Amino acid sequence: MSSNSPELTRLVDWFAEVRRDLPWRDPAAGAWAVLVSEVMLQQTPVVRVLPVFTAWMARWPDPAALAAVPSGEAIRAWGRLGYPRRALRLHEAARLVVQRHDGQVPADVDALLALPGVGGYTARAVAAFAHGQRHAVIDTNVRRVVARWRQGRADAVTMPLTAVEELLPPTASEAVVVSAALMELGALVCTARGPVCGECPFRESCAWRAAEYPAGPPRRSQGYAGTDRQVRGRMLALLRDGTAAREESDLLAVCTDPVQAARALAGLLADGLVARRADGTFALPG
């Protein structure tokens, strides 16, 4: 698809009008801000990420600042974003960026992939949005938009890079804008539930609309209440919200099922999210 495609022109024009003013999109934000935002946004909506991101960047404006503090501080600052291992991996990534890259987030995809917690999507997103490179950046929003617009499907579980890369303009700067616009379209208009097709710049050429919106496979809801994740979250909240170490009995008391409580605590220890002190008490890692 050429860079002057009418479809992409409409998309870019739409994006220029409605794009959200997000701090990591500021041209002065830098690669560290982009990396932090991409890790925080994994399975977490923007509205929840914004306050945590703002506080995080104020405290640790570069990888060196984060690498200089104990990993437990990163877990504490992560708050209730969920999946706190992301905080631990981000702390580890900051240390490696300092050790291997003089404190600068690398631009090379392979170098980014070598950082803890950075997968294919995150590596390409940082390379594109922070370093201006031409890469297919496929998150759940982009995958859904392309599945509907080009393939006539309600959604797609997976999508090859080539399916999106072939849609991007050849010029890197234009491709970056189109990548961001596709993500925004999926987040604001072509949503999983209740898409606003009348506002879509692709409405005249959308294969899904032309096929009269065939349904996709049923969506599986992921429960949270009563899971080990919830119990782990309660334990971390006890440690995060206070400065003193906690007795094992305090942590186990967050769950009425002693077997589940013990399993959750063991998991936190194994993941490095909680540390057992010499006196037998528990705290965030130092």
Q: Summarize the helix and strand pattern as letters.
A: HHHHHHHHHHHHHHHEE
**What percent of residues are in strands?**
under 5%
Largest beta-sheet characterization: 2 strands, antiparallel
Mean pLDDT figure: 93
Binned, the helix content reads 40-55%
- Just give the CATH class of the domain at 31-129: Mainly Alpha
User: Which structural class is indicated by helix and strand composition?
Assistant: mainly alpha
What is the number of beta strands?
2
Number of helices: 15
Low-confidence stretches: none
What is the CATH H-level superfamily of the domain at 31-129?
Hypothetical protein, domain 2
Overall description:
The protein has 286 residues and is mainly α. Among the domains are: 31-129, Endonuclease III, domain 1; 228-283, Orthogonal Bundle (Arc Repressor Mutant, subunit A). Helix content is 53%, strand content 1%. The protein is built from 15 helices and 2 strands. The chain has helices at residues 6-18, 31-40, 46-59, 63-67, 71-78, 85-101, 109-113, 120-129, 140-151, 161-165, 172-188, 207-210, 228-240, 248-252, 258-271; strands at residues 275-276, 282-283. A two-stranded antiparallel ribbon has the order 1-2. A hairpin with a 5-residue loop joins β1 (275-276) and β2. The longest helix is centred in the first third of the chain and has 17 residues, at 85-101. It is globular.
